[in-house]
Amino acid sequence: MGPLYTLPAMVLSMCCHVQFALAWTVNNFLMTGPKAFLTYAGSVQVGAQSGIHECKHQFVWDRWNCPENTLQLSTHNGLRSATRQTSFVHAISAAGVMYTLTKNCSMGDFDNCGCDDSRIGQTGGRGWIWGGCSDNVAFGEKISKLFVDALEGGQDSRAAVNLHNNEAGRLAIKATMRRACKCHGVSGSCSIQTCWMQLADFREVGNYLKMKHEHAKKLEMDKKPVRAGNSADNRVAIAHAFQCIARTELIYLEDSPDYCVKNQSLGFQGTEGRECLKGNKNMSQWERKSCRRLCYECGLRVVEKHIEVVSSCNCKFHWCCTVKCDKCTQVVAKYYCSRKQGGRKPHNKTKRRHSARRQ
C-alpha cells in the first residue's frame, strides 16, 4: 500500500503503510519542511521497510522478536517506552531511511542530488587518490533527520533518548562504510588507484547495531515530561546525563518487561508456541542456544513436530531459456516451546542445565 499524504500548514504527516508477509506496518512518519520533500517520501517508506526486515532478522531467535507494535515510533500517540529494545528500533529505522536515501541519491534518482565528488582529485593516501562515485551520506543524513527526528516534539528525557538513538543509527551507516578502489597503470600494473567510499551491505549495519544493542547503557534520570517554567532546568539535567555518553552508543531509560510471558496490553505474545533450533553444526552458538533461551529459561518445555516441507528440486535448464523443477516433499523435524503441565514454573540455573541435557 502506498503512503497517504496531508499538508496542514508547513507540517507534512506521512503515514506509510507497508504490508509484509507477517502483517508488519510502519506508521506515523512525520516531516517538517517544504512540499518539495514529497519527492523523498517513497524512499523513506522503502528505508523504513528495510529497517523492519533487518530488525526481524537480528532478533528472530530472541524472546523479543520485533513484534508489529514495536514500530510505533511516534511519541505523539502516547507510546513512550524507552527500553533497550526500542533503542534498537529507533536506530535501525533511522539507519534504514538514511541508507535508502543515500543509495537513491547516488544512483541519480533525485534531480537535486548525486555522488559525493567533494574530494575527487585529492590525495587520499600512498598510491591512491580520491575519485569515482562516493555515496552521498551527507544528503541521506540530512533528509533522514527531517523525516525521522520530527517524530520527537517533546523536550523530556524520553524524546532526548529517542533522538540520540536515531543519531546513533545514522552514525552506524558512516561507521560501516568501506573504501572501494580501481587500479590504473600500464599493463595492469596498478601504479595508482582511484578510490571512493561506498555503503556496506545493510546486513553489516544491522550486525553493528545489534552489538551496540547488547552493550546499550541505561540512563538514570528524571523521566517526567517538562512542566511549565522549568524547561531550562530540564535541558540542563538532560545535558548532564548525556555528557559521558558517546554519540555512537545506544541508550535507554527503563528496564524491559518479561518477554517470556504474554502481555496483551503491551502487545507481547510471550514465547509459548515459538520455534527454536536444535543440533545443527552449521548454526551459530546463539542459534544453538535458542531452545534454552526461549523455552527452558521461560519455564516451558520443547516439543518436536514433524512437518512436511515442499521445495523445488531436480531443476533442469531447457534451451532456450527456461528452468523447470520438480516439487519434492520431505519431512523435517521442528522444535517449539510448549507449556508444561501445571503451568509456568521458572527454573533455577541448575535445573535448567539438567533439563537442557535431557532434551
Automatic annotation (TrEMBL):
Residues 341-359 have a biased composition (Basic residues). Keywords: Developmental protein, Disulfide bond, Extracellular matrix, Glycoprotein, Lipoprotein, Secreted, Signal, Wnt signaling pathway. Residues 1-23 form the signal peptide. Ligand for members of the frizzled family of seven transmembrane receptors. Its main location: secreted. The keyword Disulfide bond applies. One of its GO terms (cellular component) is extracellular space. This is Protein Wnt. PROSITE patterns: WNT1 (PS00246). It is found in: Secreted, Extracellular space, Extracellular matrix. The keyword Iron-sulfur does not apply. Belongs to the Wnt family. GO terms for biological process: animal organ development; canonical Wnt signaling pathway; cell fate commitment; embryonic pattern specification; neural plate regionalization; neuron differentiation. It holds the Pfam family wnt. GO terms for molecular function: cytokine activity; frizzled binding. Residues 340-359 are annotated as: Disordered. Gene3D superfamilies: 3.30.2460.20. InterPro entries: Wnt, Wnt8, Wnt_C, Wnt_CS.
